[in-house]
Specification:
The structure holds 2 protein chains of 2 kinds. Chain A is of the alpha+beta class. Helices cover 42% and strands 31% of the residues of chain A. Chain B is rod-shaped and about 100 Å long. Classes of the chains: A alpha+beta, B alpha/beta. Chains A and B meet through helix 1, helix 2, strand 3 and helix 4 of A and helix 1, strand 5 and strand 6 of B.
Chain lengths: 166, 165
């Protein structure tokens, strides 16, 4: 009788170990699947998109010359010029980025891409980074493709970062 | 079998059972981790093809020479003239589709002709057979008569390659 009871205790112990392990695995998997870590994939097509859109001729005319988008972003950072149509270079840059991105990528809850974020910031080695403009649409929560494009602006660089979220 | 030996045997069984359990969990975990590798390889291959598609923008038939520092710019007037040239028929033998299209701003007409150019959205140089198409963003540049200056707009190059039948 005594021997049988001891055997039962050992089986209960073994089952307990297995149950504890199983619970630990379920909790681990639950946390892992519920809160997936944001992951970025560097995308060639996104780099090509930013590079090409920086050459876009905008509606902003300054001194009889229509400005390209990269020139407008530079002006928006250094001195916010007014275009001949009365709009500021920052506003035209923002509007142009939004219109181009909306035309190039179908973004929304019903599409594979759920949202986008485009940030232009000025960065130097000495004084960190300073936001120039930010354009976003839709929902950008977890996974995204992203890339950056550098525009030289002495003594630092303007970095245009784009994220397309899925 | 003595009591001691029996105890050792029990312990061995438990250790083996725990190792098997950990083994199963590890295999499950590794299979999930490596499952995403296949997707990463696909993405890398796609990026390589996109770079190849983009290289056509640098060929003499397409490139925009008015700007030294624009690798993504193509000369839209040149591309339109290529469409009209009979000598370029059969020039791009490896591709089943070669099309340049406007992304923003879009015009009303679709295919460019001598009547509607430049107020049109696409120039098709090659279009034949079954193909798998890849697209790459470029800048479509030309001299604008209204603005009296060079004008660039965002567009795409589409290239289609024969699919295996």
């Amino acid at each position: 009788m005594m021997k049988k009871k001891k055997g039962q205790e050992e089986i209960v112990g073994f089952v307990l170990i297995v149950v504890i392990l199983a619970i630990a695995i379920v909790i681990f998997l639950g946390i892992k699947l519920r809160n997936p870590e944001p992951s970025q994939k560097e995308s060639e097509i996104l780099y090509q998109f930013i590079e090409s859109s920086m050459e876009q001729t905008t509606e902003c005319v300054v001194r009889q010359n229509s400005r390209a988008l990269n020139e407008l972003i530079k002006e928006c950072h250094s001195f916010d010029n007014n275009c001949m149509n009365g709009k500021s270079s920052c506003d035209v840059a923002k509007d142009t980025i939004k219109e181009i991105t909306d035309s190039a990528w179908n973004v929304g809850p019903e599409y594979p891409y759920k949202g986008y974020e485009i940030l232009a910031e000025y960065s130097t080695n000495s004084s960190g980074s300073e936001e120039i403009l930010f354009v976003s649409s839709g929902n950008c929560a977890n996974n995204y493709i992203g890339n950056s494009y550098f525009i030289p602006q002495f003594p630092g660089n303007i970095i245009v970062r784009a994220k397309i979220c899925y | 079998m003595s009591k001691g030996q029996f105890k050792i045997q029990q312990m061995v069984f438990i250790i083996v059972a725990i190792i098997i359990l950990f083994g199963i969990v590890s295999v499950f975990f590794v299979s999930i981790r490596f499952g995403s590798l296949r997707g990463d390889v696909e993405d890398l291959r796609k990026d390589a093809v996109l770079s190849q598609v983009r290289k056509i923008a640098g060929t003499p038939e397409f490139n925009w020479i008015a700007s030294d520092d624009c690798a993504s710019c193509i000369d839209l007037d040149k591309v339109f003239l290529l469409k009209e040239r009979n000598t370029y028929r059969g020039f791009w033998t490896d591709t089943s589709l070669l099309r340049v299209s406007r992304v923003y701003p879009l015009e009303e007409s679709s295919e460019c002709t001598t009547e509607n150019y430049p107020k049109c959205n696409q120039i098709t140089l090659v279009n034949s057979g079954n193909f798998e198409a890849y697209e790459s963003f470029v800048s479509l540049c030309r001299f604008d008569q209204e603005l009296k200056q060079n004008k660039c707009e965002i567009g795409k190059i589409l290239m289609g390659f024969d699919t295996v039948k």
